[in-house]
Amino acid sequence: MSTSQTTPTADTPATPASPAVDPRLLVRQGGVAGYVDEFRRKIKSGDLGSLPVVIGLVLIAVIFQSVTGHFLQADNLTNITKWIAGPGLIAVGVVFVLLLGEIDLSLGSIAGVTAAITSVLAVREGLNEGLAILIAIAAAVAIGALHGFFFAKIGVPAFVVTLAGMLAWSGLQDYVLGKLGTINNINDGVVANLDTYFLGDGDIAFAWVLAILAIGVFLAGQLIEARRRAAAGLPGRTTGEIALRTGALAVLALVGAYTLNQDRGLPLPLVILLGVVVLTDFVLRRTSYGRKIFAVGGGIEAARRAGINVARVRISVFMISAGLAGLGGLFIASQQGSADKALGSGNVLMSAIAAAVIGGTSLFGGRGKTWSALLGILVIQSITTGLDMVHAAQAIQYMITGAVLLAAVVLDSVSRRTQKSSGRG
């Protein structure tokens, strides 16, 4: 008995093969198994995301808590959230520059000269402190525009331009401060309160309100995004995934609020740093300007052919990074109680660059996010604080930070190579 078999003819065309679907576009409907499969795929393709940093933070906390016995106490964690504001803001600016595949060596000097201009205008000249701050930050933005002009219009390498700027603005900082070299902050002034002020004067309600607000905004954003993609006929996150992501954020936010409230409440430096990170993350991921930055960092010639004004994007990025460095300099001045000739020198710039890279921003351009600056500076400050608590020498701190930075760069290089070999580079 023969078995009938249909063969393609002119009247019965062959059934076309189903097109291959990029797994990144699939809706995850496999429950826990689906998430495990996606995680494995990302690891194999080199897409590690923030996982190494999160694991690093957990290990740092466990190690120093076991050694000191009080690393995770509320007062110590509150101090860490305050101390990261200055270098963290500079690191956010570094992320913008690194996304272009460039480097800015002048940000430490810009932080110093901004603090110096503010102090001279407010203390020596008697100008309103708020106005002095605005003038100083405007000067920092103008410095960034000057760097960007030489780089984008004249064609001088960014490394050379910002190296010259590092020397020039450090000299200007010394000149502005004069022979004394140090100007103390105004008692209970704007700059002085940047590091010492707690919202509501320690009222615990502020931390809870911010945590709940963050959870609500995140959930609303997830739901709106899912609805928008569904309306466009695109796959999106399932309800279960949205609930899981929101739940994870809720645990983190509420535990953070509880911890801060065990000490003095919600510190202003943390609020400002988080606000800047959220705002810049929105700009990079949700605006056409942000997409242009990624495009320029991914390939200049391709960006030009796409109609992007590459010079304008480059100049604007250097302006943003300089402005954030200026703001970071004011927080550093607040922490140390004065503006002096040493502000912005030492390891300030290196810590900011290291924070961006450790957090996951690529040195090769085109990949990164501003949240990486926050994660990276948390790693660096946690290591520094923990080593201070065990009375380790500063030389040891530098060596450990350098080793962590090297590990981050190696991980970035290996990740890029793996992604290229898997067709995603």
From TrEMBL:
Transmembrane regions: 48-68, 80-100, 107-124, 130-147, 154-172, 204-221, 242-260, 266-284, 313-333, 345-364, 371-390, 396-414
Organism, scientific name: Kitasatospora aburaviensis
Annotated protein name in UniProt: Xylose transport system permease protein XylH
Protein task: Part of the binding-protein-dependent transport system for D-xylose. Probably responsible for the translocation of the substrate across the membrane.
Chain spans, region Disordered: 1-21
Membrane topology: Multi-pass membrane protein
Key words of the record: Cell inner membrane, Cell membrane, Membrane, Sugar transport, Transmembrane, Transmembrane helix, Transport
Biased composition (Low complexity): 1-20
Pfam families cross-referenced by the UniProt entry: BPD_transp_2 (PF02653)
Main location: membrane
Location of the protein in the cell: Cell membrane
Signal sequence segment: none
